[in-house]
Design a protein that fits this description.
Distance between the termini of chain B: 75 Å
Shape of chain A: elongated
Helix content of chain B: 25-40%
Order of helices and strands of chain B: HHEHHEHEEEEHE
Distance between the termini of chain A: 130 Å
Oligomer: heterodimer
Number of strands of chain B: 7
Largest interface: A-B, 45 and 54 residues
Chain lengths: 172, 190
């Protein structure tokens, strides 16, 4: 039995039976099989490159559109918005002039909602940092009342002092 | 002779050390507004503000909490403020108030201690504005502003030192910040 296994001399029916069973799986020299036609095409990489370029182009166009809208908004292409910005910054000056006409009962300037410019459907504003964001104080009712009273008194005082100063300076 | 002079010198020193501080105390910067009370019913708009003591402390505390630059300046200008009283009346028509009422206030400012800082007279609207200050030593102890026009009156009485220049500069810049009222139920329970 060992002779047949190692030297293939003699006979061993059991090993011969196993050899016969496994013969179908033995190596047979033959030409390599042909690859499927799909895998031979090289169009796939070209298509992905096209898609990537298209995405970049769309993104670039979107950035240009947003940038130009932002520039139009802040460079005065919208007169209502430019006027609104001016109104906000010029309010104190206007208030002083108004108070000069009626100085006795002067109140802090209030921007009328009628004069407020309409907002855009999609407002594009530069981000506001925490440092310049208007502060909201949490006060007790007593504190709020006291503060309002003090500010009212000081507003009337400063307005009347301003009248005197303007008269003395000859600016009025 | 020497024994005769001693009581006189003692009397002079008594007057210097006792009566002078009393006289200085008598120079109170507080004005009396009683004669203006009748104007409340005649005026179209009335502003009456009395801020002193605890209310002033609360308001100053709020100023300290505010991080606005102008609020800091206001706090600086009124740092030593002890009280402020304002009466402002606006009338619908001319000559609806009695000139004697406002002249009585101006008469109070003729008393010792008050010094006229500035006055403005204009024929337009018959405008008269007077600014008076009172000093105790080198420290300002009071300011009074009296304004009368054909259709309005305003009297401001400040007790304690204020920075007039800074307050004038802040005219029109005293924006009241947005604040939320804390309810009682929000307060932490002890």
């Amino acid at each position: 039995m060992d002779e047949y296994l190692w030297n293939k001399t003699g006979s061993d029916p059991e090993i011969e039976r196993i050899e016969a069973a496994l013969k179908v799986l033995a190596y047979r020299p033959a030409p390599p099989p042909e690859l499927p036609a799909k895998q031979q095409k090289v169009t796939a990489p070209r298509r992905s490159f096209f898609r990537l370029s298209l995405s970049f182009a769309a993104g670039f166009l979107a950035l240009v559109a947003i940038g130009s809208m932002w520039l139009l908004r802040w460079n005065g292409q919208h007169p209502t918005q430019q006027a609104a910005v001016k109104t906000v910054f010029q309010t104190p000056v206007t208030a002083v002039r108004t108070e000069t006409a009626a100085p006795a009962i002067a109140v802090p300037p209030i921007v009328s909602p009628v004069n407020k410019p309409r907002r855009r459907a999609t407002p594009l504003r530069p981000p506001v940092s925490n440092a310049i964001r208007p502060q909201t104080l949490v006060l007790t009712q007593e504190e709020a009342d006291a503060y309002r009273q003090l500010m009212t008194a000081l507003t009337i005082t400063s307005t009347n002092l301003k009248i005197v100063k303007d008269k003395l300076d000859g600016t009025e | 002779m020497r024994s005769l002079n001693q009581p006189v010198i003692k009397l002079i020193f008594f007057m210097l050390f006792v009566l002078c501080p009393l006289a200085a105390h008598g120079q109170n910067a507080r004005l009396r507004f009683e004669n203006l009370n009748g104007l409340e019913t005649k005026a179209r708009d009335v502003v009456e503000v009395n801020i002193e003591g605890k209310i002033l402390d609360l308001a100053k505390r709020v100023l300290a909490k505010t991080n606005d630059a102008n609020a800091k300046k206001i706090g600086q200008a009124i740092n030593g403020l002890e009280a402020i009283y304002v009466r402002a009346y606006k009338f619908e028509n001319e000559n609806e108030y009695n000139l004697a009422d406002i002249d009585e206030i101006r008469a109070q400012l003729q008393s010792p201690g008050w010094e006229r800082l500035a006055n403005v007279r204009s024929k337009k609207n018959n405008q008269k504005v007077d600014v008076f200050t009172m000093f105790t030593g080198n420290v300002m102890s009071g300011v009074a502003v009296v304004l009368s026009e054909s259709k309005s009156i305003a009297v401001i009485n400040v007790i304690g030192p204020i920075d007039i220049e800074l307050l004038t500069e802040l005219s029109g810049k005293m924006n009241i910040p947005h604040f939320e009222i804390q309810n009682d139920k929000d307060k932490p329970k002890n």
